[in-house]
Write a structure and sequence with these properties.
The complex is a heterodimer of chains A (about 400) and B (about 240). Chain A has helices at about 5-20, 20-60, 80, 90-100, 135-140, 150-155, 165-170, 215-220, 240-250, 270-310, 315-320, 325-360, 370-400, 400-405, and strands spanning about 65-70, 105-120, 120-130, 145, 160-165, 180-185, 185-195, 200, 205, 210-215, 225-230, 265. Chain A has a six-stranded mixed barrel with strand order 2-3-10-5-7-6. Chain A has about 400 residues and is of the alpha+beta class. Chain B has one domain: Rossmann fold, CATH 3.40.50.300. Chain B is globular. Chain B has helices at about 45-50, 75-85, 100-110, 115-130, 145-155, 175-190, 200-205, 225-230, 235-240; strands at about 5-15, 15-30, 35-40, 60-65, 70, 85-90, 165, 195-200, 210-215, 220-225. In chain B, about 40% of the residues lie in helices and about 25% in strands. Classes of the chains: A alpha+beta (about 400), B alpha/beta (about 240). The interface of A and B includes residues 2, 16, 319, 327 and 401 of A.
Amino acid sequence: MSLRVDLVEGGRIALRTLGVNRLRTALTLSAVGIGVATLLAIVGIIQGLNGAFNRQLASLGTATLNIARHPYVVSGDWWKYRNRKQLTLAQMHFLAQHSQLATAVVPEVNEDGRDLTALDQSVSAVDLVGTLADFQKIWGYEVPQGRFLTDADSDAERQVMVIGFDVASQLFPGRNPLGQSIRLDNRPYRVVGVLAKKGQILGQSMDLIALIPFNTFLAVYGKRDFQIDVAVDDADQLDRLEDEVTGIMRRARSVLPGQPDDFSVNRTQQLADTYRQLTGALYGVALGVGLITLLVGGIGIMNIMLVSVRERTREIGIRRALGARRRTIVVQFLLEASLVSAVGGAIGTALGLGAAKVVSLVTSLAAAVQPLTVLGGILFAAAVGLVFGIWPAARAAKLDPVEALRYE
Amino acid sequence: MLIKLEDIRRYYTVGSEVVHALNGVSFQLSKGEWVAIIGQSGSGKSTLMNVVGCLDTPTAGRYWLNGSDVSRMSDNELADIRNREIGFIFQTFQLLPRETALGNVELPLIYRGLRARERRERARNALDQVGLSNRVTHRPNELSGGQRQRVAIARALVTEPSLLLADEPTGNLDSATGQEIIGLFEQLHGAGHTICLVTHEPTLAARCPRAIRISDGLIVNDGPGPQVALETRPERARAAAT
C-alpha cells in the first residue's frame, strides 16, 4: 500500500479522533499552545527590540568614525585610557588636512546632565554638545524648525542653541521655541533651531539634547577633552578610513613605531556588538524558558498519545488483521500527534501575537512578529508533536495483532 | 489445493516455561470446502486459527496459502496477504465503534488502496449480500448482535478473499440468531466460498461437511462433520445429526 494512502487515511482518522475526545484534545492543545505562545511572544519581543535598535543605529550614521581617548565601551582598565594625552585642535586640523577619504571632520565636546530653564519651565538631564556645522551632516540631524549651528556661530562665540525634540516640547509646550531664551548654567542662549525626533536607544532618549557652538562651549566651560567625528561617503570605506585615520593620528600625536595607539577609533558598530553581548544571554534564558514550556507540552502529547494507543489497542488489532501494515499504524498516530500540536501551535501563535501586541502597547518596546515566524511557530509545534509522537506510535505499531484483538 | 499445512509447530515461552501450542499439524483444504476446527479450550485451535489467518507465524513447519509459502513471509507481506486472501469473522465482531456499517465494511478496501467511490460501491454490495442494505449508516451500537455479525461478514466478503476464517461466530449470539448466521454460512458455502470455522460447539461442527478435531496441539480426527463431532459428545452430536 502506498504512503499516500497511509497519509490520507491517517489524516482522516486523526481528524475524527480529535473531534471525539474533545476534553483531552483541548488539554493537549493548551499544553502545546502555551509553549508556542511563550516562545513566540519572546521571539516577537526580541525581534522588536532588535529591529528598533537597528533602526536607531542606522539613524546614528553608519559611515562615521569617532576618535577619542577611550573606546565607546570601556571594559577593564579605565586608568590606561585616563592617562592618555588629550586630543588637540592642532591634531584635528592635521587630520583634516591629510585625510584623503574623510568628507567631514568635526570636533565634539560633551557635558552630561545639564539643567535648562526657560521662563517657568525647566528640563534636566540634558546632554550638552559643543560642535560645528558639519556635526549635522555627520550624524544626519534634521532641523525642521529654524537652522543648525554654523561655523560662524563658533568663530563669534555666539550664545545660540539648537535643541532636541524633547527639550523643545518640555520647555515650550504649545509654543514656538524659535527666538526664545534658555538659561543654562546662568547664561542665556537664544534658540535658533529644533531637531527632528530621534527616539530612544536602549531606553535612553536621543532627544534630550542641546547643541551650542564649539568655541562658545570652550569659552564657557574652559578647555575640555574633546572627540573628533570623521565621516566618509560610503560605509564600505570605513575600514580604509580607519587605517588612514589611525596612521595620521599616530603621526600627529608622535606615537613611535611599535608603540600602541594612544587614542581609540570608535564605530557605531561597536555599540551593536555590545548590545548583542548584553542582550544575548538574556535572550538565551528567555528562549530556554520557552523551549522548556514546549518540552512540557511535548511530554503532555506523548502522555496523551500513550493513553490513546492503549485505549485503541483493539482498534489497532482490527486494522492490522484487515491488512494495515505497521507503517500505516505509525503514520496514523504520528499524524494525530502532529495535528493536535499544529492546531495547538496555531492557537498558541494567536496568543503569542496577542501577547507581543500587548507588550508593544503597554511598554515602549516595539514587539514585532514577522509573518515567517508565525508559519514557523505552527510548523515547529507540529514537529514537536511528531517527535513526541514517535514513541507512542512505535508502541502502537509493535503491538502483536493477536494480543491486540484479545485486549479488553 | 488452497491451503496446505505441513508439520506446523508453534511454541510460546511463558516465563521460563515453553508452551507447545501446536505440535506438528498437517492438513489440506481445497477450494470451496467448509471445514470446522473443533477442540476444547487450550487444545490449540485458536493458535491454529491465528496461523491459518496469517496473524501469527509458526515456529516450525511450512504453510502454503493459495500457492505462496506464507510461513516465511515478512510482517508487511503478511499484512498484504491478510488483506487479499483472508476474510476474518470474530466472536466479538471486532467492528470499529465510531464507524458506520458502511465505514466498517470499507476498511479493508482502504488498505488495499481503492478509491472512495469504488470502495463505497463494493461495501454497499457486500452489505446487500448479507441483507443489511437498510442499515448502511448505522453505527455498531445501533445494531443488534446478529446485525453486527452480518456487518462483520460483509467486511470479510468485500475483499473477495480466498478463505473465510470464522472464530466462534455464534459465540456471542442467542441460539436463534446463531442459526441465522449459520444459515448465512451455508449460503456462502453454496455460493462457492471456502470457509474455515473454529468452534468448541459440536452441534455447530456437526453441520459442517468436514471437521478437524484438535487436542493438545495435534489433530486427533479429521473426517465428515457429524462423525467427528459425534465422537466425543455422542449424545449431543447424535441429536444434532438427526
